[in-house]
Amino acid sequence: MRSLTIACALAASAGACGDPAPTLLDATPLCGIPADYGALGTRTGTQDATGTGTPSITVVLDPGPPKDDLFIKLITGKGAFAAGIAPGTFTIGGADASFADCGLCTNILANIDPAAGPAKFYFTDAGTVTIATTNPVSGSAHDLHFVEISLATGTATPGGCTATIASLTFGSP
Whole-angstrom Cα distance, residue 73 to residue 69? Predict the structure, then answer.
């Protein structure tokens, strides 16, 4: 009887046994963010309020709960800003596609719990960012591609989720 039940369950997944094939679930809920944000228009963000001196902006992508944020941080001496932070148009690649080495660091923090922080972390590995002003940070981004990363290693999560943002203009009030 057990083997008949297993055989019917396998056959049912192929549409046999008189039942329709099951609908496969979209993996997006497991990722915590949409796979494609599309064109986001203009978004107002919040500038770094920690006083660290490192220019950054946080833009809410989804107010939640749970909340999702886009976080852009400019680090002098690294990546696109190896010679210093300055306005310009930058293609994400090389050091800026590395969580450990980026100067133009662009992240999505997904499913943020106010007490525990984000449940998932995404980092850009491709796209273009234009920085119009550095303090406060303002500009635009196009064709951003994000990969899920492990904060423990700073590297892409094997089999992890991905997301894209077609375009976005960002700044603060």
Answer: 13
Residues 6+ away with beta carbon under 8 Å from 151: 121
98 CB contacts (<8 Å, ≥6 apart)? 79, 154
Separation of alpha carbons 72 and 34, rounded Å: 19
In sign, the C-alpha dihedral spanning 57, 59, 121, 155 is negative
The residues spanned by each domain of the chain are: 25-171
Residue 92 and residue 141: Cα distance in Å, rounded? 10
Nearest residue to 99 (alpha-carbon basis) of 55, 147, 167, 141: 147
- Tally Cβ neighbours within 10 Å of residue 34: 15
d(CA 173, CA 170) in angstroms, rounded, equals: 10
| pLDDT tens-digit map of 4-51 | 333 333 333 344 444 443 333 333 558 889 999 999 999 999 998 666
Q: What is the pTM of this model?
A: 0.81
